[in-house]
Amino acid sequence: MHAADLLADLRAAGFDLLPDGDLLIVSPASRLTPAQREAIRAHKPGLLACLWGEMLREHFEERAAALKRGGLPREEAEANARASTGLLARNLGLPWAALRLALSDPALPDSPDPVDRPPYGLPAWCLTPDHKPVQQGVFHVPKRSL
Question: Which secondary-structure segment (H or E) carries 105?
């Protein structure tokens, strides 16, 4: 059984799984059978990669959509979202396997080792708190009349 299949089975059985660093929180834990506990132990790195991958995929999709809404062409928005997601994975110390799953990029390592470098460089665009795209390193303060 693969970790993704086990995750689907556990969710179908009514369990919630949440990654917390290297920990895996399963609730309600009291309902786990010994066989389920053993399967979780055996597949823990893969389960964590799947769960972190889902979170990273959501980050990528939200970032790309916001940049597209802000006026960037799709390719540029997705490239910046990919770089932002890679940077987030590195900053959180998430496994390469999670980033590989999130971005469906076979060029990335399929490893439980933490992301140790920004795999796509740094994003050229970021979002302001009101979700408007702005180029990195460009800061503009509107002039006020005195």
Answer: none
Q: Torsion angle of alpha carbons 98, 100, 104, 107, nearest 10°?
A: 180
Q: 10: domain range?
A: 3-135
pTM, whole model, 2 decimals?
Answer: 0.84
Mean pLDDT calculated for residue range 58-68: 94
29 CA to centre of own chain: 25
pLDDT tens digits for range 92-128: 999 999 999 999 999 999 999 999 999 998 888 887 7
DSSP-based three-state secondary structure for 58: helix
Q: Residue 142 falls within a domain, yes or no?
A: no
Query: Which of the 8 DSSP states describes residue 19?
Result: E
What ranges make up the beta strands (E) of 5-73? 16-20, 23-27
Across 39-131, the runs of DSSP E, i.e. the strands, are: 125-127
Q: Is 35 inside any structural domain?
A: yes
Res. 144: pLDDT tops 80: no
Number of folded domains in the chain? 1
